[in-house]
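User: Assemble these into one structure.

Assistant: Restating your components, then the assembled model:
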Amino acid sequence: MPVVELRDVSKRFAAAPAVDGVSLAIDDGEFFSLLGPSGCGKTTTLRLIAGFESPDRGEVLIDGRRVNEQRPYDRGVGMVFQNYALFPHLDVGRNVAFGLERRRVPEVERATRVAKALEIVRLDPATFLRRMPGQLSGGQRQRVALARALVLEPKILLLDEPLGALDLKLRKEMQLELKALNRSLGITFVYVTHDQEEALTMSDRIAVMDHARIAQLGTPAAIYEDPRTAFVASFIGESNLFEGPVTEAGADLVSVGGPTPFRVPPRSDLLPGRTVMVAVRPEWMDLFPPGRVPAGENAASGTVDEVIYLGETLHVLVRLEHGQRVKVALRNEGQIANPIRWNRGDQVAVAWRPEDAQVLE
Amino acid sequence: MRRRLLRWFARRPAASGGALAAPGLLWVAAFFLAPIAVMLGYSVRERGLYGGVAPGLTLEHYGRFLEPLYLEVLGRTVLWALVTTAACLLLGYPVAYVIARAKRWRQILLFLVILPFWTSFLVRMFAMIFLLRDTGLVNTLLQRLGLTTDPIQLLYTPGAVLIGMVYGFLPLMVLPIYASLEKLDDSLLEAAEVLGANGPTRFARVVWPLSLPGVVAGCLLTFIPALGSFVPSDLLGGAKQVMIGNLIQNQFTAARNWPFGSAAAFAMMALVLVAVVGYLRRRDAREVVG
Amino acid sequence: MTRRFSRWLVASAALVYLFLHAPVLALMVFSFNDSKFSASWMGFTLEWYRRLVERDDILLGLGRSLAIGLGATVVATGLGTLLALAFHRHRFPGKRAAESLLYLAIVTPEIIMGISLLAAFVAVGFSLGTLTVAIAHVTFSISFVAVVVGARLRGMDRNLEEAAMMLGADEWEAFWKVTVPSLMPGIVAGALLAFTMSFDDYVITSFVAGPGSSTLPLVVYGMVRRNIEPSINAISTLIVVITSLLIYLADRSMRRSAR
């Protein structure tokens, strides 16, 4: 049984729908991310689970029970906020103890649980217990906020862009720690972020949201390697998009026309006349001198616009004959030993195998 | 029970906001808005025999402003309020600028402007009397220095009223200008310097335009109370040359002509409204553009 | 060029500061002057302070001012804080109009507030006295409290109450355990300012005070208009010292809250 389930949930604010017909089921212990650009409805979805918003339509279930009418404090769900929301008038100890006090936990037990929670988030109780939130760094505040939620041992922890305010290095560190906590504590994490890399790093599954709807839901690999829509293909990682009408549906390959003709593996619904759009990841493309493309690969000729050295990879921007720009990512095999052959202005052929293109909806 | 009430409000966000605002808004409506409506009502009533109102409606009280005596009062009030505003701007701007550019002293300098802002207006007017009267500090010093033998008439002159008003309202000018100058970035000035602008040019091209919203707000905040003031002219002017404020006060006390006093007050209120609405329009327009 | 420009600025600012503070400072110094009429220094005395204590009208006025100030402050702080919460944390119909109303109350000349309240009290047959003065003081303080508390709210994390609710506190507990304590610096500053305004107000009070309800500023005004005597310097000094202290505390509380 899923721990959290949304069934066809919709929520409108005055002007526009914030969440529109969203259904999802989150499993016990899962690290589940809601990913999307700002205004896509991911935070509203989280707030519907928390209980700060109630759905106009549909059902929110926690542990199989409908909680539409339940107030946040009755749901037994923990939450970490974007700006931590530490109580400025209480020290670290009292912040973490706040929920235990509300639950009338005896004082002795409270102290041990607070200390344990601080240790879980790797803050030394002896040092931090009496500090005020104003005296903490961003990373420390983040840990206190986490401890404050974890001390209640919730079954579900909601996280609203909790790492957004941290610098890059600390953020990477915290990503791994959060993932480890999710594993070791067995708590279900529902994580909201607009950072696709963060979502790919930590999540078991990701729901990509766009315009109040779920655009695609799946494992990081499924979402990255098999994006279903142009939005997902370009929001998660980068993609080169090609479009055209099906000209011939063969048994082995389907041919597509348009400015850049290409072929894709056959599929029953790809009938002649239908317009097809595909996404090709830059790292699944390759460059060849004109006319030297291996047999069986799709090819489009163009001119090298720019070569960008990124260390791990090299990005080559190619302008195709009809004007479209394509990005090709090549593995850096050592610039000094194996200098790249391509330079600005070179005539090249961009090539990819038919099975490496994702047909979008 | 409590939880049920909370749940009721949770489902009605507008109701919770309304419930929080209601007591305060009702108070302000009852003791600010309604009285102004009552005042408006008084202003169109016939004057009663012993200071009250008589039955019957009239606009004659508004018409009386056209009499030369009252036109003069009106003109003097507007003129003095304008002069006060201009003087406050002239004196207040450098102060606001210096506070905004100060680093270590900023908090203290700012506090030294906030302090008089909140200090009893009455005490401060009395301090002016203490300085300006015939046996006051200024005349005593002048005589001690041998500059005059007889005291110079300083108090109970238009000059004293104006000095008193500038003294009284100056903090109202400084604070908003400071607020807008505070946002002024050092790098902007440095950029201007790099581009070769000297002090006065930098001021005219960079500082002044950026501080303009504060200047406008400050002028409004000074002009309105100056327009409505009657304590400085009463205490420092000896009530010889009255302003609308004195006129209104007099109608409500000695003269007991409430309808006329109300009409005068409403005329003042109309001026204030025009100024405030004009200011808000301008500000909103700027916010839309910016 | 630049240096001369800024030196000129600093010099003129210094003169303005002198203009702002010298009169009251002189007044305070001469409250200890051993002379009834002269503004020449004749020696130190506490005579004028001693005389204050002998004057019933001043003591009564002071008592009334303190009582009215306390009462008006409590009511205005409560109402103003609720208004600030409503404006900053909630949406409700007519919010913009309500906010404009509060700003209008701030910019309206005192004399208009005074006479309109007088007219209204008389129109409904409410007899003038301590209560009408207190009502008037609450009215002009509410907006200021709302603005000051609002400034604190703006700097506060919007999610505090939600965080409390996620930890098991209902709205009522969240309000008393989180909202109010974390707003406290702003509330204290607002209350101090409300008290200062009530304690200092002359104009509005002069219209709505009835016979036998003269506050300290009214008594002082009467003294200033009748004849100038050094006791006025003494009482003024006391007023300035008290209000300066309150303002200092309010300023510190606000600054704390900003951090």
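Chain A has a mean pLDDT of 92.
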